[in-house]
Design brief:
With about 475 residues, chain A is mainly beta. Chain A is built from 2 helices and 37 strands. Chain A is about 5% helix and about 50% strand. Chain B is about 40% helix and about 15% strand. Chain B has 39 helices and 30 strands. In chain B, helix 9 (about 310-330) runs antiparallel to helix 10 (about 335-345). The chains are: A mainly beta (about 475), B alpha+beta (about 1100).
């Protein structure tokens, strides 16, 4: 047999190699998909509704919760109750939520527990109307989940002003929290606010004037070292012997693009925008006012340089914009912001209201409106920060079980649209819905009454209750943490 | 009688010592253009020819005596009771008396008898060195198997005449049939009694030793000694019956102030019949070995200075024991006995040493330290050992037996003589290219591994977990029935721990050093092995050098180092050795000694087992290559098949039961020892990158860096003259490419990970790279000569270009490695990530674990349960399967989502968890979420990480009452965190004993001596036992009996395989009688049949 020519061997060898590679190229596997987290529906929610500090005969206080109709339970319990104990109230099957009239008596927080579909998007508020007495005013406080970081913008500790920080631990394990109070002169960490132990199923109330006496305006940060708490802050003003108003300060979170929705009109009122940069770096905050007519860059307040850790107060006068509005703040670094409003006509008693930065609505937010007696007017303030007009659907589900009613409101881009909501006794859950995928609609609601001795007012952002939770993808890894 | 003290009037001749480098003080003989006709009249030479059954050699010896150009004045023949034709031959061939002595007469005694029969020399020795005319008497000792060449005596005398201080002279002794083979050019004695010739194994005479120089002694064949000095020294030591008497004589002469020189111009051909065992040494009974050893020790003890004796004695005892052990290993137990017998007969009879030293009393005139240059360097014994190992591996073992080993490679420069006039032994060693390759690559590796070799912590990262403190920890891991990894695992320990532990034991227990060395030496050793092996294939030194460097720096090797894959890093140099041994075991076709050897088969199997322990794929690859190669190589079928079976069966035997896991899930053959991780592999590896020997992943050079290799390798196919080798190399390439392509298209799910990871084609690209390099080397060999044969045309420029591209590959690879450096992901750091206070708080009787969570680049969070002892090398290989930990994954997910409540945290505590750690870099979202989980308290942690303590920390062992309350049971401590031996109180009915360990039949518990009944796994994973109401002594432990049985069986198997794998001691009859039977010139090195080297 003749040996093949070298060139033939060469060609054969390379062809064999090339063939193998070519075959493999067609059979290349897809790269493995990166494993992200999974999004699952919320199936358990625990909300803590703050205790009203001054329950008097003249007060009517109601806890109202708006929830989806579906499987699961929705129960209201006293704090620290055994799971087997009978609830204070329980949502009937098919009911849009739950309404509980708080009986007069010692102040005690209540815990709202929802499971199954009832837990999706659950929101609840405590509303209180005190027609007379030292605590005169109407107030509304959101029921909040426990967490490990809470921010409140507003409240003060000057003479005549009493603010109380309520720390509630609904869990079965103790929590330890630190309270930091930011004032105009910088952050303060008063000793009574450090390492506050909140036992399981208990409440600790810290008077703000015991922490930072003499400070007119503050931002309160509650951070847990371990465990978690639900926190709420109530502000009460008394000038001399006259009541000066009461309200809950809505909770908020830092962000670099904030919208404070639901700022009431300037008529008879002093509105103060309070801004804090929590970090270490000074920041320039850009301010825009979203009014019914459009977005305004306020003259002279277009941009504000903020020193970190120091609270800045900016009056939102009627000259800037007189109607109800929303404030949008953008900055390079996270800031917290809120609006404090004191409404008073000369010769009448004043009342307080707060607004705070709130996230945009995701799909739906609900306003559980509990009619508390008296001629109360409820107004939704819908703010559209997007580039285009947005249709917002309002569904009113009366507690009475009557058929829900729906309307659709169009909100022009860059405006704040006041929408009066008529709710008959005993109230209703008003669900504010935007089309899925629309992010940028913020809502606040105002609650006002022309009282005999002066106007009563309260407000709150409309929140989307948690509907889904992101669970990180996990996998066993024998070398976890050893990579670095 | 006045003896001229030569040392008094001459510079100490020792400066030109045996192993010295200085030129000696003697003038070499004048270049003799024609025959020397000087007669040296004043010198009277008496030859003493000692014969013993030497009929086979005697005719030639006698003929040589007759042919001498200067004959001795007298010849005295001494026959020691020969039974063959020797007496008759002597009678006929020697004029004069033939002394007949008994068979038992030793050489020394025979010479003494011969001398005694002489008439005393008439004249006194010369009064002064200048007295020219004074006659001098000489004795010339000859063996019956040593034939002096015609000029021998004349040249000896010429030197003797030149300096009166010279008392003993020796010729250059060369092989009986192969005159080119040097037998000895002067002798010396090592510190352990070794007879040192100072020659390389099988060194060829190329004139490199041709200078007259002082030595400690010369061999007795052809030894010329002044009669007066011989008398002064009282001849040979009568205590030495046979062997070493010549060494002793020379030593004593030196000590007495005489000079002993070797005259290489005088040549004696010597058959060394006695030491090769071709005739019986009747003087010492049957055991030449025992006699030889006895003589060696005797000479040492008699001549070393007195103050050195105690230490020498201890040393010799130890050395003899070690030698005996070595002989047992070499499967020669009888020799071991003789060795010990010989040593004992000297060492245990000190009075004989005293007598011997008394014999020498009064002879010494020179300080023993003056002889130091004549003794071999201190570490020469070690060097001999290394030489022997290298020879063994490169198949050159038998070269020493006469240079006739047909399958030996070309006379590579490793056995090329060193320049004897070179500047020193060290320099000579450095001058060996193989050593240079190793040292050069070692420097490169040191530079590339900057920052890895010094500093706190251990080397880890990538696939490599940190090494534990000592070898004992590794051995413990090998032996324990239960591994504290994750929720615990009863899997057999990783097989790779055994070689690692063995290496660590050799390094005095330094496990960390073992890992460091394996990584550091991966590249240099690969280079050295490649260089040695390529020597069997090609001759060109530069091509071979470049190919060796290229092989060592192949992307698979440097990539393996960078990603902490000990397996491929080790396979880089162990696999070629295994392959070579496998080839050796098959024998070479077309060669006379084609029978192959069994020991090589077992040794190949042993090496394959070591490699497969790290890289299991090596086993199937070996099987594939063996089965493909066997028919192709055309070796003898039944024997070769059986040996192939032995090679493949060895690993199966040694790696059981660990390898059983792989057979149950064969995809695991594609992974290798260490941490499986997708981040260590390039998931988008292009197929042609495999063909370019680049496996992808961390630490590999750019793909194009090896392009020149493919080009140069393909040229190898064009060499029609080396087609067989080139085709074999390309077959390996094609197998490697196919393997790599199949591998990298697969995804393997390691049980401990639960998610598929891509396969790293390291071993496959190693094959590709190795094959291409061999092909390229074939292409490069002799290319210049071949090209110059052609007329200048397109061939020359194209070849030059290809050659340049090929030679650029090692340079590119080296530069890429140096620039990038070996670290990342390999790095130096603490062995594990637990902060010290967590470790301290976990070393309590409840032995809690820490849940360590780290988010990876893909946004997934990896978690591990880590005991206080941390994670160590080998742990990842036994980590429990992902599905065996019950609800742990959901618990961790809830924890990281912040959804966990107190109940979930309680479940987590059920896993024995006391701490939760988020490792750096911490995802702030996860940190916030875990911060809010009730039942966890944040505790201080090192910067970058976050640690929480469970308010109700978990425990390893607890008694659980019917209502769910748990009471911790203290554990025994030590290395088994779940072992319990304590007394518990009586309790309520229905209580259970709960272990925070995965349910496994290996767990045993007993209360008061009565075994407890295991319950079904608690929560789907945990081991639990039903506990009666009564109290008593509670004992919990993992049952190690099965594991122990396996270990014993494996140890026996290992011992057997090691014994079988040790090359058998060369049997004396195995040493070819080539010196006699082969015609002159037939033996000796020759051009190799290189293709036979490659083919199995």
């Amino acid at each position: 047999m003749r040996a093949p020519a070298p060139a033939a061997v060469w060609v054969a060898g390379l062809a064999l190699l090339g063939g193998l590679v070519a075959i493999a190229d067609t059979a290349r596997p897809q790269p493995l998909a990166a494993g992200g987290g999974s999004v699952i529906d919320v199936d358990r929610v625990t909300l803590v509704c703050p205790a009203v500090t001054s329950i008097a005969d003249v007060s009517v206080s109601t806890i109202a919760a708006a929830a989806e109709v579906g499987d699961g339970t929705l129960r209201l319990e006293p704090l620290g109750a055994e799971p087997s104990a009978a609830p204070l109230a329980q949502a009937a099957a098919g009911a849009a939520g739950l309404r509980y009239a708080v009986p007069p008596g010692p102040a005690a927080p209540r815990v709202l527990r929802a499971t199954g579909q009832r837990a999706r998007g659950l929101t609840a508020t405590t509303t209180t109307r005190t027609a007379d007495g030292s605590g005169r005013g109407i107030s509304s406080g959101a029921c909040t989940t426990s967490g490990n970081e809470h921010w409140f913008v507003g409240a003060g500790a000057v003479a005549g002003q009493r603010a109380y920080l309520h720390l509630v631990n609904p869990d079965a394990a103790a929590a330890v929290v630190d309270v930091t109070v930011f004032t105009a002169s910088g952050p303060k960490r008063p000793t009574p606010g450090q390492g506050v132990l909140v036992a399981p199923g208990s409440e600790i109330v810290l008077p703000l004037d015991a922490l930072v006496p003499g400070e007119a305006a503050t931002v309160v940060q509650v951070r847990s070292r371990s465990g978690r708490v639900a926190a709420s802050l109530v502000d009460t003003v008394v000038s001399g012997l006259e009541p000066g108003g009461v309200d809950w300060v809505p909770p908020t979170q830092p962000g670099d693009d904030l919208v404070v929705p639901g700022v009431p009109p300037a008529a008879d009122a002093t509105r103060t925008l309070q801004i804090l940069v929590p970090g270490e770096e000074p920041t320039t905050v850009r301010l825009r006012l979203l009014t019914a007519d459009g977005t305004i860059a306020p003259v002279g307040l277009d941009t504000i340089d903020v020193t970190p850790g120091q609270l800045v107060s900016v009056p939102l006068t009627a000259e800037l914009a007189s109607g109800a509005l929303a404030v949008r703040l953008t900055a390079e670094r996270p800031v917290v912001a809120g609006v404090r409003l004191v409404r008073s006509r000369s010769g009448t008693l004043p009342d307080l209201a707060y607004a705070a930065a709130a996230p945009a609505l995701t799909v739906a937010g609900a306003v559980p409106v509990a009619v508390t007696g008296g001629p109360v007017a409820t107004t939704l303030l819908l703010t559209n920060t997007t580039e285009s007009d947005v249709a917002v659907r309002l569904t009113t589900r009366p507690w009475s079980g009557a058929a829900p009613s729906q309307t659709t409101v169009s909100v022009r881009a860059g405006t704040t649209q006041p929408v009066p909501v008529g709710v008959a006794a005993p109230g209703a859950a008003v669900v504010v819905e935007v089309a899925p995928g629309v992010i940028g609609v913020h809502a606040g609601w105002l609650w006002s009454e022309t009282g005999a001795r002066g106007p009563l007012v309260s407000g709150q952002p409309v929140l989307s209750g948690a509907r889904q939770v992101v669970v990180p993808a996990v996998r066993p890894d024998p070398a976890a943490g050893l990579a670095g | 009688m006045t003896i001229p003290d030569a040392r008094a009037d001459e510079p100490p001749a020792a400066v030109g010592g045996f192993f010295g480098d200085e030129d000696d003080s003697l003038e070499a003989l004048p270049e003799d253009a024609g025959p020397d006709t000087r007669l040296f009249d004043r010198h009277r030479v008496t030859a003493v020819l000692v014969a013993h059954d030497g009929a086979r050699w005697l005719p030639r010896t006698l003929a040589a005596l007759r042919a001498l150009t200067l004959a001795p004045a007298h010849v005295v023949a001494v026959d020691t009771g020969s039974t063959d034709a020797t007496p008759a031959l002597l009678q006929a061939g020697v004029q004069g008396a033939v002394l007949r002595l008994s068979r038992e007469t030793g050489f020394g005694a025979a010479v003494a008898a011969g001398v005694a029969s002489l008439a005393p020399l008439e004249m006194a020795p010369p009064a002064s060195p200048t007295a020219d005319a004074a006659p001098v008497g000489w004795l010339w000792l000859l063996h019956d198997d040593s034939a002096p060449e015609p000029e021998a005596l004349r040249r000896l005398l010429a030197v003797a005449d030149s300096s009166p201080s010279i008392a003993i002279l020796g010729p250059k002794v060369v092989g009986w049939s192969d005159r080119r083979r040097l037998v000895q050019v002067g002798l010396s004695m090592g510190r352990g009694g070794r007879r040192e010739t100072g020659l390389e194994r099988g060194e060829l005479d190329q004139g490199q030793r041709d200078r007259v120089h002082d030595v400690l002694a010369v061999g007795s064949s052809g030894l010329l000694v002044r009669r007066d000095v011989f008398a002064e020294l009282r001849g040979f030591d009568p205590a030495l019956v046979l062997f070493r008497e010549d060494l002793d004589l020379g030593w004593r002469a030196n000590l007495a102030g005489h000079r002993v020189v070797v005259v290489p111009d005088a040549v004696v051909q010597h058959a060394e019949a006695m030491s090769h065992g071709r005739r019986r040494a009747d003087a010492v009974g049957h055991s030449t070995r025992s006699a030889d050893r006895r003589s060696a020790l005797h000479v040492l003890l008699a001549n070393e200075p007195a103050r050195a004796l105690p230490w020498l004695w201890v040393r010799l005892v130890l050395a003899s024991l070690a030698r005996a052990l070595g002989l047992v290993l070499a499967k020669a137990p009888a020799d071991a006995g003789r060795e010990l017998l010989g040593a004992a007969s000297v060492l245990l009879r000190p009075w004989r040493v005293v007598a011997a030293r008394r014999f020498r009393r009064g002879q010494r005139r020179v300080s023993p330290s003056a002889l130091r240059p004549l003794r071999p360097p201190r570490l020469s014994g070690l060097r001999h050992g290394i030489d022997a190992a290298v020879d063994l591996l490169s198949g050159r073992t038998d070269l020493s037996a006469g240079g006739s080993m047909l399958e030996s490679g070309p006379t590579s420069d490793d056995v090329e003589p060193m320049d004897a006039r070179g500047p020193g032994r060290v320099r000579a060693l450095l001058g060996r290219p193989g050593v240079l390759v190793f040292l050069g690559l070692l420097l490169v590796a040191l530079a590339a591994m900057r920052g890895l070799l010094y500093g706190p912590g251990v080397v880890r990262g990538g696939a490599l977990l940190g090494a534990p403190g000592g070898a004992i920890d590794l051995w413990r891991s090998v032996g324990q029935p239960w591994h504290d990894v994750g929720v615990g695992s009863g899997a057999p320990a990783a097989a790779s721990l055994v070689p690692l532990a063995a290496l660590a034991t050799l390094l005095l227990g330094k496990a960390v050093l073992a890992v460091d060395l394996l990584l550091l030496l991966a590249v240099p050793l690969s280079g050295l092995v490649a260089y040695l092996l390529l020597g069997r294939l090609v001759g060109g030194r530069w091509t071979r050098l470049a190919a060796a460097v290229g092989y060592a720096l192949l992307p698979a090797v440097t990539g393996a180092v960078a990603s902490g894959r000990l397996g491929t890093a080790t396979a880089g140099w162990l696999l070629p050795l295994a392959g070579l041994l496998a080839v050796r075991s098959m024998g070479s076709p077309g060669v006379t000694r084609a029978s192959g050897s069994w020991w090589a088969a077992w040794a190949a199997g042993l090496l394959l087992a070591v490699v497969a322990a790290f890289v299991p794929l090596a086993w199937p690859v070996a099987a594939l290559l063996g089965l493909l190669g066997l028919p192709w190589a055309g070796v003898s079928w039944p024997g070769a098949l059986a040996r192939l079976f032995a090679i493949l069966a060895g690993p199966m035997l040694l790696l059981a039961p660990w390898i059983g896991r792989l057979w149950r899930d064969p995809a695991l053959f594609l992974l290798e020892a260490g941490v499986p991780s997708s981040s260590l592999t390039d998931p988008t590896l292009a197929p042609w990158s495999v063909a370019l020997a680049n496996p992808g992943g961390p630490g590999v050079p750019p793909v194009w860096a090896t392009a020149g290799l493919l080009l140069a390798g393909s040229v190898g196919l064009l060499r029609a003259d080396r087609r067989r080798a080139a085709t074999a190399a390309w077959a390996v390439v094609v197998v490697g490419v196919a393997l790599g392509l199949v591998g990298s298209s697969l995804r393997v799910t390691p049980p401990s990970l639960g998610v598929p990871v891509p396969v790293w084609p390291g071993l496959a690209t190693l094959l590709v790279g190795g094959g291409l390099l061999v092909a390229a080397t074939l292409a490069g060999q002799g290319a210049r000569e071949r090209l110059s044969g052609h007329r200048f045309g397109w061939r020359q420029p194209v070849s030059a270009l290809v050659g340049l591209l090929g030679l650029a590959v090692p340079v590119l690879l080296g530069a890429a490695w140096l620039v990038r450096g070996a670290p990342d992901p390999l790095h130096r750091g603490p062995a594990d990530v637990l902060p010290p206070f967590v470790v301290a708080s976990s070393e309590v009787p409840t032995r809690p674990r820490t849940l360590v969570v780290a988010s990876d680049a893909e946004g997934m969070a990896g978690y591990a349960l880590v005991p206080a002892s941390g994670r160590r090398i080998g742990d990842a290989d036994v980590a429990p399967a992902a599905g065996s930990s019950g609800p742990l994954p959901e618990l961790v997910a809830d924890l990281l989502a912040g959804r966990a409540d107190a109940e979930r945290v309680g479940q987590l505590a059920g896993f024995g968890v006391a701490f939760v750690q988020l490792s750096a870099p911490v995802d702030p979202g996860l940190e916030r979420a875990v911060d809010g989980v009730p039942g966890l308290s944040r505790v201080g942690a090192p910067t970058g990480s976050a640690v929480w303590r469970l308010d109700a920390p978990g425990v390893r062992v607890a008694v659980r009452d019917g209502d769910g309350t748990k009471v911790a049971v203290p554990t025994r401590g030590g290395t088994e965190p779940t072992a319990v031996d304590t007394v518990i109180e009586p309790g309520a009915a229905g209580r259970t004993l709960v272990l925070a360990e995965a349910a496994d039949p290996v767990w045993r518990a007993s209360l008061g001596g009565r075994p407890l009944t295991p319950l079904p796994p608690l929560d789907g994973w945990a081991q639990a036992f039903a506990l009666p109401e009564s109290g008593g002594r509670l004992v919990v432990e993992a049952d190690g009996s099965v594991r122990r049985t396996w270990l014993v069986a494996q140890s026996v198997a290992l011992a057997v395989v090691v014994l079988l794998a040790v090359p058998g001691r060369r049997r004396d009859d195995d040493v070819l009688d080539d010196d006699v039977d082969l015609p002159d010139g037939a033996a000796g090195p020759h051009e190799p049949d290189a293709d036979a080297m490659v083919a199995p």
